[in-house]
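User: I'm new to structure prediction. If I give you an amino acid sequence, what do you actually give back? Let's try with this one:
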Amino acid sequence: MTVLRPIHACAALTAAACLVVTLWTGLRDARVALAFGVLIAVGELTRWSGTRVRQAAPLGTAGSLSYALLGADAGQPAGHGAAQVVTVVLAASLLGGVPHIWCGRSPTLDHLARRVLTVGFAAVCFQPLRHRHAFADGSGPAHALLLLVLLLLTALCDALLAASLGHARTGRPFGALLRDELRGLRGIGSAVCATGAVMALGVAVAGLWALPVFCLPLLLAQLSVRRYAAVRATYRQTIASLARATEIAGYTPAGHARRVAALSLAVGRDLGLTRPELAVLEYAALMHDIGQLSLLDPVPAGATAALPVPEQRRIALLGGAVVRQTGVAAAVAVVVERQADPCAEQPLAARIVRAVNAFEEKSRDAGPDGPLRALEELRLATAGDYAPEVVESLARVLARGSLTLPTAG
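Assistant: Good question. You get back a string of structure tokens that encode the predicted 3D arrangement of the chain. For your 409 residues, that looks like this:
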């Protein structure tokens, strides 16, 4: 949590300084400021509060970047400066974020800190340069090239801030979070940057009428992303329902798959897995015991970790075959199939599922000292059965106490 305070303090100081400067010099080009303020506020009102969304308010972000990179209005040089840009963006973001702040749907403070610092960075870099002769007309190849370079730098700045805040909030490795953010720039992030640049160029040539014209594609893209996320959520619920088949049939204890999936995700985050890798890990952990449905006689308490290795491999192969028939991604089936292979030959996700499953089985119903004894047993078996780095990561996750496991049933 140490990095949160410096980032929040820097954003607060930037916002306060810009507000003082704007009040001292007065609001310039009020019509333009009002138009962009309304656009940003509407974008914030439509902000998505989903937990796995990468760009929560694409329209608000694009409008903020466009205002920061605006050099002219219908051919007339713009009169606002960097301080006014930050002030208008902050005021509009606060106004549009009132419903989200009231409902406590998302970490609004982090969102505002990122918005203030990234927009302030873009405005401070661009506003002094737009008065140069090469960029004074607000259009032309040199102006477009300048916008492109500044957008790349601003996107990198935002990715660094997002990774830093995520590391402070969740404890995940900074490198993995930064890779996720940079990978996200190829999707909705690139659409947001492109829309911001196009709106700035359009307003410079055609005036404020360009704003609603260039907002429509981004609104459609936002709707498509939401529908895609809804499909993914339904997909995950389907996998969770399939995983419960072993519990309903009496092959595994109630809640076993959910507990293994939750703890596997925590270990995967600690080891720096990216979001796509975490998704595969979660699905595989949910379905790791589905091969037991092919058994005539259930394993006592569903404890496959205590079975002979050939029997473990047979159940794992049966589980992989079932997963493939359900239409789930092939990568998930590979993890399920290889969870009983020799440790040195397993992919990292299979190593995690194997160790976490064994820990859950050994510590379940073992009393207050059960988790500690189970962890010691895993450490003693790191010579061949379990990966040492996975066991140590599991120990770190348990020591932090940052995970609340689902209860049985």
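You can read the tokens as a compact description of the fold. Here is one thing that stands out. The longest helix spans residues 210-243.
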